[in-house]
Amino acid sequence: MELGNEYGIPVSPHRGGEIWGLHLMVATDCADLAEYHSDHISEERDGLWLGEPSPTNGYIAPTGDPGFGVKLNEAML
Hints:
The chain is 27% helix and 5% strand. The chain has helices at 2-6, 19-27, 42-48, and strands at residues 49-50, 71-72.
């Protein structure tokens, strides 16, 4: 990210639309583009994390809940 900033190149983290990526983007000066895979990993995503945010009208943001704002699906353990 520092290298991109040095040369004026916006940085958007890989898989930034996932819970850990969203928090990184909000806490830093990353570009405001979040990669989100809604097609081929949605079942895996929905199964592991409970309450993970999803895009609405092209926008996504972390929840206001503590930590990453999700709960681990303990039934998968």
